[in-house]
Amino acid sequence: MSVAFEVSDAANTIFSNQIPQVDGLYDLTPDEELLAQEQNESAVRSYPRRLPIAIKQAYGLLVEDTRGQVFLDCLAGAGTLLLGYNHAEINQALKDHLDSGLPYQTLDITTPVKNRYIKQVKQFLPQELAEQSVIQFCGPSGADAVEAAIKLAKQTTGRNSMFAFRGAYHGMTNGTMGMMGNTGTKSRRTGLMSDVHFMPFPYNIRCPFGLGGDKGAKAGIRFIERMLCDDESGVMKPAAIIVEPVQGEGGVIPAPAFWLKELRRICDEHDILLIFDEIQCGVGKTGYNFAFEEAGIIPDILCLSKAIGGGLPMSILVVNKKYDTWKPGEHTGTFRGNQLAMVSGAKALEIVERDNLVEHANVAGQYLRMGLEKIQERLSCIAEVRGKGLMLGVEIRKPSGELNKFGEPASDGELTLKIQRAALERGLIVEKGGRDGSVIRFLPPLIISFEQIDFALRVLEEAIVAAGGVDAE
To answer: b/e map of 107-144 (b: 16 or more CB within 10 Å)?
Structure first.
């Protein structure tokens, strides 16, 4: 297949002067770079199929490809790049570490770097959680943290079942896929973790009870509690309930604060561990340090990765001390001692606090959301704008206003893909996800400017129109 595509000069016109001029040596032309990837990488690669670019350099939110086209990146490594690309202070901290004589990784042997990182993470946590918890270092990916959380919950409670939620995404290992909501991804897999029961997640426009809003969320809580209190439900009490306070891959769906608070109550009453997966939504993106803070509760186990490493691979658990039931060496991982990620993670958290970037995410997120809602008023294909802070989603429906058999807006994954591609052609990188791949997702770094938000809004609207997102009538 051809990998070439036409790109407008929209982003170049606005942002090209913000990209340093760097000379590079390239053996291949841009098209040859993409073809080489296609020929030599496994078919499992995913992002290059929707974002066919080869990156030359990147700074902040700006990415320049090998053709010289500049893009505004509102995906940011799926939420990993908290401060964007090549932040000067993080780069300097990494250089200083490399010159210090300290190793790249140390298994779980401590160093001053590690102790500083732990201190910085605990300082970023709610005080109550920080005082009650210990930090467990896992392997480099978020799925590693979730796998550790599953093991810990099961051995601590002596139970084997887990409660997860429809629309959930916790990783791509056997255990984490067993708790994944997306059935298409799991359709060719066998032998996934058993004894997982999927509960309804609050979803305004696709409520399983046909209620939506707070009524639908309350019905979901009643469903869970009634099941746990019914000795004829056929479902054994779980070791833990695991939930994303804001579902990411599931379509940027935030759980109401009162719903999370009710989950905490149910877990306390039934001696069930509550695990929050904030691998994607955590570390400032939602306008809170952590999304669960809005509910005024704390989890028993908190799973963190992505942004917690400041752009480098890191995953940790924050575990209530009374549930730290591990024996020495009972859960390990070679790269849990990634010193470079501890350097970048500690520096990133320091900068976020110093520069009040969580508050900026709150204000800038409201600005972006208001802009998206204004586009929704003008274009019939937007079913809902939702999310928190700078973690926002735009659900795309059929422009005709068609409803599905449940009386819900008919999703349009094909149109969403066209919108994503049209946005890329105009210099904007966004991701998609959710049911039928019908949600445009925004996960920009916390440093996004209002000028950049204006650009993203303008390009998104142009892309929707160009992709056919306006009712022909």
So the answer is: eeeeeebbebbbebbbebbbeebbebbebbbbbbbbbb
